[in-house]
């Protein structure tokens, strides 16, 4: 060890990354629904959730281009931009656009996150179990949508 210099970071933590935008109002993942047909009970995803997950999948495919899904551990960064309520005064709308009002109303961060994670399965990564690091923010914006950055980290898989 004498004469050896240790560094805190020996290799780049990033192998590859993708960024894309899911346009429009963010939608929370809805609970699975159940329907009885005679003696058989079937489970299905609510149509609004299914449409949103398909929108996520399309945006992710466009962002990924011809690349295969990432195989390693993933850092996922989401910026959820909610529409500013139209019924608010202009002063309040301006404050919201300037990030001076916290977006403490629905949809919940965790439910939007789950819809985005599920929509990215098989496109950006093989499975959302690969996500090891997560950064999420929820704000009001004049341009609603979800900005996504997925980074494959230079780490070994378990």
Automatic annotation (TrEMBL):
Domain of life, source organism: Bacteria
One biological process term in Gene Ontology: DNA recombination
Keywords, in A-Z order: Endonuclease, Hydrolase, Nuclease
Short name of one Pfam family: RusA
Transmembrane regions: none
InterPro entries, A to Z: Endonuclease_RusA-like (IPR008822), RusA-like_sf (IPR036614)
A GO molecular-function annotation: magnesium ion binding
Protein name: Holliday junction resolvase RusA (Prophage-encoded endonuclease)
Organism: Paraburkholderia dioscoreae
């Amino acid at each position: 060890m004498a004469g050896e210099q240790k560094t805190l970071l020996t290799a780049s933590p990033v192998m590859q990354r993708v960024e894309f935008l899911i346009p429009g109002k963010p939608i929370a993942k809805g609970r699975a629904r159940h329907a009885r047909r005679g003696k058989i009970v079937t489970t299905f995803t609510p149509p609004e959730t299914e449409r949103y997950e398909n929108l996520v999948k399309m945006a992710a495919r466009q962002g990924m281009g011809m690349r295969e899904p990432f195989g390693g551990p993933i850092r996922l960064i989401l910026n959820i931009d909610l529409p500013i309520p139209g019924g608010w005064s202009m002063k309040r709308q301006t404050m919201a656009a300037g990030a001076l009002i916290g977006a403490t109303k629905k949809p919940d961060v965790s439910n939007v996150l789950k819809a985005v994670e599920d929509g990215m399965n098989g496109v950006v990564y093989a499975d959302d179990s690969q996500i090891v690091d997560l950064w999420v923010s929820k704000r009001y914006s004049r341009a609603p949508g979800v900005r996504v950055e997925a980074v494959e980290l230079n780490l070994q898989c378990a």
